[in-house]
Amino acid sequence: MNPRRTRRGLPLQEGGGSAMIKNLMLSMRVLWVVLAVSAFCVAQGDATAGPNSSDHASVETAKTSGTTPQFQKRSPRYRIEAGDVFDLSFELSPEFNQTVSVQPDGFVTLRGVGDIKVAGQTVPELTETLRQAYGRILNNPLISVVLKEFEKPYFVADGQVGKPGKYEMHGNTTLTQAIAIAGGFQSSAKHSQVVLFRRVDDQWTEAKLVDVKKMQKDRDLREDPVLHAGDMLFVPKNTMSKIDRFIPNLSLGSYLPLTLP
Question: pTM of the full predicted structure?
Fold first, then answer.
C-alpha cells in the first residue's frame, strides 16, 4: 500500500490516521458534553441557592434562638427592680402626678388605672407601658418618668480575697481594680484562675476564666476586663492551701501541724 502524503509531504498511513482523527473527534465531543453539563449545573445552583440558603439560615436561626443565649450589650439600659422609686409627671393632667414605689412582686399601684407590673422594664419601656395604661382614661397622655431611688451599680467579690462582699461601682472598674477594692488576694489565692461570672438573662450566666497572675507578671493589663453592674468575681484556693493543716503521722499515731507558706 502506498502511503498518502500530506501537504508538507510527510507520509500518513490511512488506517492509523483515520483512527487518530476519530479518537480526537470523540474526545472533543466528550469534552463538549462535560462542559455543557457543568454549565447547566452551575445555572441550576445559582437559580436555587438564594431561597434555599435563606431558608436554611432561617431554620438555623430558629433552632439556635431558643437555646443559645444572647450576651449583654456593652452598655445595657437599667431595668426597673423591686424597691425602686420613681416620679410620674403628666404635662396636661397634673392631677395624676405621683411618686410610685415598686412592690416586691414587681407591681406598682397607679392612681386611676390600678396595678401594673413594671419590673424588668427600662425607663423608655416603662414610659410606653404607662402611656398605654393611661390612654384608656386620658387622650394621648404626655408622661415623663424620673427615677429617684434605684439599685446602684455593684459587683460581688468572693473567695480568697481580703474582704469578700458586695461593693458599689463608681465609674468604669476593671477586674484587677475590683480585687484591690475587695482587699487584694489572700496568700491562699490562685491568681491564675480567677472566675468572672456575668448574668446574661434569667436562665444563663457567662463564666470567664482570667489569668491575673500572667497579666501582672507581663505587666500588661490590656486583657483586664471591665466589670458590668452585677458581675461577680470568684478567687479559688491554690493547690497547697487545699491540704489539711494536720496530717496523720503513721509511725507516731498522732497529728503534726503543717506550716504553710
Answer: 0.52
